[in-house]
Structures are given as C-alpha cells and as structure tokens.
Amino acid sequence: MPELPEMENYKILLQQKIKGRTIIDVDINRDKSINVDPENFMNQVQTQKVAEIERKAKHLLFHLENGYILVLHLMLGGILFYGTEQEKPERTIQIRLSFGKESLYFIGLRLGYLHLFTQEEAKEELADLGPEPLNVNFSLDHFLDLVKERRGMIKTTLVNQEFLSGVGNCYSDEIAWHAQLLPERNMDELNKAEKVQLYQSIRFILPRATQLGGYMDQPLFKGDNKTGSYHSQTYVYDREGKPCKRCGEKIVQIEISSRKTFHCPQCQS
C-alpha cells in the first residue's frame, strides 16, 4: 500500500504535470470508486482547473478551482499513471481525468477511492489524522509528548494513523531498523535515548524514501526514472533471508497484528 513517501512523490511530480491545467473530460468506469452520483461528480470536476495538489498522510488532495476537493486514497493495489492512451499500462482503469492528449489514470481502485468533497467535508473526513512527521513543526518535544502515555508496540504505534500520519507497513519496519529497535518492543519500555533515536529515524527514513521516489515500482509517466527507486534501497522491508546492511545477519519476517514485519534479530534490540 502506498505510504507517505509514495504519495509525496506523486504530489511533487503531479504538481509539475497538472497543476494549473484544466480537466477537459472525465471517465468513470467504476461507480464504487467515487462517493457521489457520477453525473454530479462529472458536473463538478469537468472544466475545472487543478488549483493545487496537497498530501495529507496517505491521501492526495486535488484542489479544484471551484472550491471542491478530490480526495484520493489508493489503498492496497492502487496506482496512478499520467500519459497518453498508448502509454498507459494494460490494466483496468477505474477513473480517467483528461487534460487533452494526456490523462491521469486511476488504476487498481478496488479498495481505494477518489471522493468529491467540499472543503468542509474534506476537513471533517481527515480530522482524525495524527501529525505530519515531515512538518517543520513536528519537533522532538512534540514527539516525546505524543509517546509519553503510549503502551503499544513500536510497529502498531507507528502504523496508527491517529498517532502519526502516513507511516504504514513498509516504513514502520525501516524506521525501527534504523533506530536499532525491535518492532515488537513496547513504547512504554523505551528509555528517553531510544525515543529520541526513534524520532530521528522517522525524520531520516521518510525524507530519504521520498527523495528516492518511494518503493512502488510502477512509473508515474513514461520516462519516469525516479518513482520506485527506494524499492532496491530498503534496509529490511521485503528482504527476508538477505543479509542485514548493518551487521550481516539474515533478515527475518514475523507477524505483528496480522502484518508482515521484517527486522534484523541481531542488531535490533
């Protein structure tokens, strides 16, 4: 499932491609991928300029010139592609926003969605999200205050979107590895130095993964060499049986709350 770095990468690239451009046509091939009547959706979206693209947690928000907002959550299996009809992947397209010869294709939205909201509705929809870990105001003191009363495991805490926005299965493992902490450690067992290191690891892993385009291996557009570059740079995620990049011990996979979890049994404690 796309997490903060993947969606931040999409945001940055799409700002270059479609910000300020007009949506001239809309195709909806799966009504369940939207939240309003298709005719209403098309009436509010078609002919509108994309005024701004914003990311909140794992969501992308397409701000339209008329004040409406398209809120995207790709969920498991969802991807985006921008390009011509000839360039798009041979996949089922749930929604297409056309900008002329090129379109933005929403693919794999079986669990994901593209919902149309007013500004107030969008604010209410995303109200339960925790702080953004890449925000300049997300300080160490703020983090230490957040974890003060936390009792759950590191893994389950990091993936809790009400605790912290945008971290999921992949980056919770990467952060725990970088902090040299086992993902099943309980937050209330950590000393201050370990909590400080956890914060520093969050602030290291997420920007690094974003800079490398995240771990999804499907390019956003033809010639996109950035998206998915982190896939080959992961420290532990999806590397079961491979040597740890820090100590050489084999990476193991376990399950925590039904989530596959990767860690090094030697240099994480």
From TrEMBL:
Give this protein's Gene Ontology molecular function annotations. class I DNA-(apurinic or apyrimidinic site) endonuclease activity; oxidized purine nucleobase lesion DNA N-glycosylase activity
Q: What is its EC number?
A: 3.2.2.23, 4.2.99.18
The record's section on InterPro entries has:
FPG_cat, FPG_Glyclase, FPG_N, H2TH_FPG, Ribosomal_uS13-like_H2TH, Znf_DNA_glyclase/AP_lyase, Znf_FPG/IleRS
Asked if Membrane is a keyword of the record, the answer is no
Instruction: Please list the cofactors this protein needs.
Output: Zn(2+)
Q: Which reaction does it catalyse?
A: Hydrolysis of DNA containing ring-opened 7-methylguanine residues, releasing 2,6-diamino-4-hydroxy-5-(N-methyl)formamidopyrimidine; 2'-deoxyribonucleotide-(2'-deoxyribose 5'-phosphate)-2'-deoxyribonucleotide-DNA = a 3'-end 2'-deoxyribonucleotide-(2,3-dehydro-2,3-deoxyribose 5'-phosphate)-DNA + a 5'-end 5'-phospho-2'-deoxyribonucleoside-DNA + H(+)
Q: Please tell me whether the keyword Transport is annotated for this protein.
A: no
Q: Which Pfam families match?
A: Fapy_DNA_glyco, H2TH, zf-FPG_IleRS
Q: How does it assemble?
A: Monomer.
Q: Which family does it belong to?
A: Belongs to the FPG family.
PANTHER family for this protein: FORMAMIDOPYRIMIDINE-DNA GLYCOSYLASE (PTHR22993)
Q: What is the protein named?
A: Formamidopyrimidine-DNA glycosylase
Q: Which organism is it from?
A: Halobacillus naozhouensis
